[in-house]
Amino acid sequence: MDALYEKKIGNKIRSIREKRKITQEELSAKLQVRGCDITRSALAKIEVGQRHIYPDEIRHFKEILNVEYDDLFNV
Fold first, then answer.
1. Domain coverage including residue 18
2. A Gene Ontology molecular-function term (predicted)?
C-alpha cells in the first residue's frame, strides 16, 4: 500500500477512535482480545503512518470501531 495512503487511513482510524472516546490502550486491548496482536505502541505507529496495516487488522478496526470499510478508505 502507498505510504501516504496508509498515513491517511491511520489518521482516519485515530479520528474515529477519538470521536468514540476510546484511548489507544483501550483499542489495542480490544484488538488483542480478538487475537490481533497490536500493542498500544504499534497502534500509535499505525495512526501516524509508520507501520503497515494488514487486511485482517483492517477488518478488526472496522468491527471494533463500528464503521463501514468506506469510512476507513475514503480519505
1. 3-73
2. DNA binding
Chain Cα centroid distance, residue 41: 12
pLDDT tens profile 13-47: 999 999 999 999 999 999 999 999 999 999 999 99
Residue 39: φ, ψ to 5°: -80, 170
User: For the domain that residue 28 is a member of, what is the CATH number?
Assistant: 1.10.260.40
Q: Which residue shows C-alpha cell 478508505?
A: 73
CB atoms within 10 A of CB 71: 16
Global pTM value: 0.92
Pairwise CA distance, residues 5 & 73, whole Å: 9
Domain count, the chain: 1
54's grid cell: 494488514
Q: How large is the C-alpha radius of gyration of the chain?
A: 11
